[in-house]
Structure formats: C-alpha cells, structure tokens
Amino acid sequence: MAKQVSLEEIVSLAKRRGFIFPGSEIYGGLANSWDYGPLGHMLKQNIKAAWWKFFVQERDDMVPMDTAIIMNPKVWEVSGHLENFSDPLVECKVCHHRFRADHLLEAKAAEPGYDKEAPRDVQAIPCPNCGGQLTGQKNFNLMFKTFIGPTEDSTSTAYLRPETAAGMFVNFKNVLQATRRRLPFGIAQIGKNFRNEITPGNFIFRTREFEIGEFEYFINPKEWEQVFEMWLSEIKRWWQDVMQINMDNLVWHEIPDGERAHYSKRTMDIEYKYPFGVKELHGIAYRTDFDLARHMKGSGESLEYLDPVTNEKFVPHVIEPTFGIDRMLLVSLLEAYHEEEAPTAEEGETDKRIVMKFPKHLAPYKVAVLPLSKKPELSGVAKELAQTLRKNFMVDYDETQSIGKRYRRQDEIGTPFCVTVDFDSLNDKAVTVRDRDTMAQERIAMAELSQYIATKLTA
Ligand code: GAP
C-alpha cells in the first residue's frame, strides 16, 4: 500500500542509498546544490533515455540537438531575457532574508478566510522568518553572468543559458536546410540550465542549476489548436505509460487569459501533488511566432518557411512542451516509495520493508547477483554470472551480510530482480530469481537468465 511519503524521508533515503548527496558536503555544503550519486545518475540517465525514446526516437517528426550553454549575448537581448527574465524580490529589513514576493502573496491567498478583494500588498505581510518588515518589491534578473576571456568588462560579459529553447530557435534555419524537413516538425534537446533563483529549495524541486528536456514544435499557425491537443494527449501517455505514475497526483492547470505570458495564446501547467503542496512539474505553451519573429528581426536573417505545396511563405509558429528532468526524477522517487510488512527469513515473522517500486525500465540496477555464501566455489560462479549479465544490464553484486539484509537493501534501491546463487547451483546450473514487487521466487537455468530478465523487463 502506497504511503504518503514526506520530503524528509526521500532526502534521507536518497543520501543513504546514493541517489542524491548535498553538494560540496565536505566543505560544509553549498545551499541548495545537490550531486547525483551512483544510483541517482543511473535513474536520471534512464529517465532521459526514456524521454528521448518516447518523444524523439519513436516519432518521424522530431530531430535532436545539443547546443551551447554560453551563446552570443545578443541572443538573450533579443529573446527578452536580459530585460524581463526576473522574479519579484523583497527583503526583510531586520533579518535580511530574501523572498519571492509572488510566493508570499500566493501563500497569503491560500490562508483560510483570505479576502480575495483585498489589495495585494506584499509589504503588509510580516517576514516569515522573523516577523520584521519587508522592503518594497524590485525585479531581480535570474541570468547567471560570466565573462569570456581574460578581461572582465561589459564587452566580455556573457550568460549561462536559463533555458535550452533559444539554442533551437537560433538554429531553426540550419536545421531546416540540413535536414530538409517539412512542417510540422520539432527540434528536441536535453541540457543543463542556470537560473539565479531567489528562493531555491524543496530538495531538487527548485535549484540554480538543473536540466530541462524540451522541444520546439514548428507549425503552420492554422493548425495550432489540434497540434496543442495532440501534444497534451502525448504528455498524458508519457506520464501514464512510461513514467507509470498515479495520474490522480497530476493537476492540469489551464493558465487563464491575463495570467499567461503576453505572447502565448494557450499555456497549460502540469502540476504535481508534492508533499510540500501542489506545484508545477512541467508545462506546454503555444508561443505563436514570438521567438522566430524576434530572432529574425534581431539577426537580420530570414527565418521564414516556404510551404512547397501551397507556396505560402510565413514565419512558423511554435508549440513548446517543456519538462524539468530533476522534477521528473523527484516525482519518480516520490511515486516509487512504498513501505510494507514483508516476511523475514524467520518462519512466520514479518518486518517493515521500504521498497522503491520504480517502473522496471527506469530502475537504476536491473539485477543484483547475491551468492548465498562468500565461499570461493560460490562467489566464483556468481561473479562470472554477474559479468555475463553486465553485457545487457546494469548489475549490482553483493556478498556481504545475511541474504535477508541484502534483499532489503536491493528493495530500497528498487532493483527489480535479485538472483541468488546457492550450493545447488553448482550442480543444477540454476539460480533463484526473486521479484522485487511480489517477492515470489523462481528457479531459472543460468543459461536462460539473460533472456528471462530481458523478457520480464519489457513485459
Ligand atoms: N523554455 C521554457 C521554459 O524554460 P520554464 O517553465 O521556465 O519554461 C521549464 O522551465 C521547466 O524547467 C519547468 O517546467 C520546470 O520543470 C523546470 N524548472 C524551472 N526552473 C527550475 C529550477 N529552478 N529548478 C529545477 N527545475 C526547474
């Protein structure tokens, strides 16, 4: 039975088992920076690979890219990021803690009995840290600044990208010419992004360095409504069939007129019921021709498309589904976490087991090979078996502690199959395979093990 897990439990498991560590920990850490450990890296790779397969490989209308993090600063001037990519900042006059004004106002509005007609004055809210008075709000630009080359002045100023989209917009013409694509088609990219967030927090939910997987889907504006619906249903399929989450935990938030970015005709935020509240997971926006039209003006290059059938010439419009990879990973940890009573090695006894029920294709290790004893005649066979399995799967090998404790450890890191090599294995050339979720055990011939696991993983 799924338990409502707390964020603290996830943070603790993530560190204990090597999914995610606090960044720079031996130097006292760096607030809100996190390092993906061995298990976290594998999980992230698997999520990204599944994303690629679903949104790029399995479609005939998508091409991938990998563009630079540091771009010509003109890109950010033209895209509007240097002027507008900011959040409203307030600071406490007493303790000097900083807050996002919009977050404080949102929290206030969620309080019981809040008068919705009352003026939205952030200065009327006491500092959540010390109760002191807050300053008026000012806009704080989130772009991370750096310098190119040895001089540090305005001529060498550059920025770390805050989103991957711009790299795809400025390459639209290159991609069109190189691939000879016809509309509609998309350019997809996964990569690191940097935002100097005022209030990062909630583990990997909001950080200053994070990954986005997003694509720009170029269309004839006449088609925008049906293309938007097509992507919404693909996004549903992604969450249901690939990430296999409980769909009741998603909230589909249509952003109303007046709250969308000025260039967007439709935006949907896909929110998730996190332990710290319902908040954005990812989104999809119809961005019209805003980006290409601006880059066309800013660069002087034509970014128009000539339809070879109708001879119509126009600036393509764009539908942009965007996914925070780290937020998807956080959701996969929250969804996988289960606590349940399970039998121990002692006849008739049970104890609590924590089991991460990742969809099998996302699990970091697919198989753990566990010899029943450390004796060389068993460990030799087990190590050889593990090495054979490594050709096809990520395999963990563990010969320390009791078999019960080793099963519990593999449950906690979500390994779908534990393979036990025992003394009978020396004669019958077979092993016991334990299923993570049902804990059922089956005797399988070693020669057939790879095929058995491959079949189960794709079932
Ligand atoms: N090109 C559109 C774009 O960048 P966004 O909503 O600003 O849209 C995309 O960001 C996604 O990146 C978000 O939906 C969220 O999943 C993730 N994201 C945004 N800021 C983040 C942060 N500070 N930490 C972690 N993930 C973040």
Structure description:
With 459 residues, the protein is of the alpha+beta class. Helices cover 32% and strands 28% of the residues. The protein is built from 14 helices and 23 strands. The protein has helices spanning 7-17, 38-57, 73-79, 81-84, 101-109, 165-170, 172-179, 224-242, 290-299, 325-336, 376-389, 403-413, 423-428, 449-458, and strands spanning 20-22, 34-36, 62-64, 86-91, 98-100, 138-141, 144-147, 157-160, 185-194, 209-219, 250-254, 266-274, 277-288, 305-306, 313-314, 317-324, 337-343, 350-356, 367-371, 395-397, 417-421, 430-435, 441-445. The strands form 7 sheets. Strands 3-9-10-16-13-12-11 form a 7-stranded mixed beta sheet. The protein has a 5-stranded mixed beta sheet with strand order 20-19-21-22-23, with helices on both faces. A 3-stranded antiparallel beta sheet has the order 5-4-6. Helix 11 links the parallel strand 19 and strand 20 (395-397). Helix 2 (38-57) packs across helix 10 (325-336) and helix 3 crosses helix 9 (290-299). The two termini are 22 Å apart. 30% of the residues are buried. Glycyl-adenosine-5'-phosphate (GAP) binds next to strand 10, strand 13, strand 16 and helix 10.
